[in-house]
Amino acid sequence: MLANLPTTSGVQIIVCIAITAIIGFATWAKVRQAKTHDGSSKDVFLAGGGLTWLFVAGSITLTNLSTDQLVGMNGNQMLLLAWWEICGFAGLLILAFVFVPIYYKNNCTTVTELLEKRYKGKSIRTLISGLFLFGNILIYLPAALYSGALFMQSLFGSDIPLIYFAGILAVISAAYTIFGGLRAVAVMDTYSGVGILGLAVAIVILALAAVDYDIVTDMPMERLSMIGGPDSPIPFHTLFTGMIFIQIFYWSTNQNITQRAMAAPTVKEAQKGVMVAAIIRILIVPPIVVIPGVVAYKLFGDIGDAAYGRLVAEVLPGWLSGAFAAMVAAAVITTFSAVLNSSVALYSVDFHEQFIGEVKDHWKLGGAVSVLLTVVAIMLVPLYQNAESIINLLQQLNGLLSMPILSAFIAGLLFRGVCAPAAVGGVIWGVLLYGAYTFRLEPAGIITMHYIDFMVVTLATSVIAALLANRAMGNKARFAGFREALT
User: Fold this and answer.
1) Residue 266: how many CB atoms within 10 A of its CB?
2) Among 11-15, 52-56, 83-87, 262-266, whose mean pLDDT is lowest?
3) Residues 115/125, Cβ–Cβ less than 8 Å
């Protein structure tokens, strides 16, 4: 998809390797200052509770921002996709002021621990952890590698097989998780984030300069409008239906994100970091994930996911391409290592310790699991090569897990007296319903509802299914209200 791009020179390759090495060395120097390395779950997965607001903000920002955003969102080549990031601001506010205090009060390492405590049963914790692992292994990890490898292939030469780039990125990413845990991931996120955001903003400015700062003339209105039509990726009405629930799930109940917020020493320090991430989300991220794509449409036409790479090759000075390649690699490495660390945490804390036995050294177990998951992710990369739009594919696949999982949090926080098996029933109902919609009902034209709208249907019916199952089991539930949910 990113063919016909110039290959970098040997000097640019050296620059890329050098910058990547410098980030790695700086991360190692910072991580080695840690006072404790006792192999506990808190040490490995929560950085010993020692992340300051700066590293919380950096880790949250870079865990989300990777090549699937830069390539995928710009690949739609319309301003409309900025809504994903704009609405993310609201999701981060909810994380900061609603969920962070709850997680800290319950001393959670994984978000699923909160569910076990609310429902007073392990079954819901096990199910949700399994779903998170399923999504990470089959969706997030290989998608991050694929989008990153695709972009690196465009910079270093299309004659090199995509899987080679994916393998290199995966090995470097796994090294951060294996040898440094969340502490190394967060530090590397923050250090590389400065360069990634800086270069991404520079590309926006250079792109606008290439069209004399005029993206309006001779452009179809649907490429510029922020009011999505019924057939657009984001119909306007969905901003008031499923979009807010997608953001709540992703930013507030998703282990890959919330784990960073749970690694600060205090609630206030965590909230400060989340708020800084929210400011970055609303001020910096929207322009860098849509404007280059729109400019690429004006320059090259409708070229899909090739838009960002083609534009970068056009506007970025040759002497900067090596640095940009390093930043692209860093974006992939930060996202992959963050999701990998979260996956290892879910397995170690929610499965191994629960069903196999106590883990005396999470470093050793985490290393073994990291290697296994990395190999699987590399093997799955080719499955994503036939996707028309990687970002739309990811958002739609996320519905299989996001709304059913969110239903368990809503039923557990807003209602009292719901038992764990009933919550399990609600989640299973949601997965089956959304799966039927995605793979059968919508393709056959039986249900024509947009997938963001159908997420609301999935969420509402999943909560209702849990409450009905609870009543059928002889239990009475009462609405607790938002104030009681926070206690």
Assistant:
1) 11
2) 11-15
3) yes
Q: Is the dihedral of CA 388, 87, 438, 166 positive or negative?
A: positive
Whether residue 160 contacts residue 326, with contact meaning beta carbons closer than 8 Å, is answered with no
**Angle, to 10 degrees, between the axis of helix 285-300 and the axis of helix 82-94?**
170
Q: Which residue has the tokens 């409450």?
A: 467
Residue with tokens 């996911």: 305
Q: How far apart are the first and last CA of the chain?
A: 51
**Model confidence pLDDT, tens digit, residues 125-153:** 999 999 999 888 988 898 888 878 877 77
In order, the DSSP letters of 338-360 are HHHHHHHHHHIIIIIIIII---S
Q: Using DSSP, state whether 478 is helix, strand or coil.
A: strand
Helix 420-436, helix 451-472: angle, nearest 10: 150
DSSP 213: T
Report the pLDDT averaged over residues 188-197. Answer: 84
User: Residues with Cβ < 8 Å from 367, sequence gap 6 or more?
Assistant: 178
Closest CA to 182 of 255, 241, 129, 233: 255
Residue 181 near residue 43 (C-beta atoms within 8 A): yes
DSSP 35: S
Which strand (E) or helix (H) includes residue 87? helix 82-94
For residue 151, what are its two tokens? Answer: 């972009």
Instruction: Give burial (CB, 10 Å; 0-12/13-18/19+) of 220.
Output: exposed
Average pLDDT in the chain: 86
Asked if pLDDT for residue 322 goes beyond 80, the answer is no
pLDDT at 384: 76
Closest to 368 in 3D by CA, of 356, 385, 386, 380: 356
CB 423 within 8 A of CB 115: yes
Q: What pLDDT was estimated at residue 4?
A: 41
Residues 257, 375: Cα–Cα separation, whole Å: 23
The string of DSSP letters for 228-241 reads --TTSSS-GGGGGT
SS3 66: coil
Q: Are 165 and 16 in contact (CB under 8 A)?
A: no
pTM of the model: 0.85
* Cα torsion 74, 242, 480, 408: sign: negative
DSSP string, 366-402: HHHHHHHHHHHHHHHGGGGTT-S-HHHHHHHHHHHHH
Whole-number Å distance between alpha carbons of 344 and 255: 11
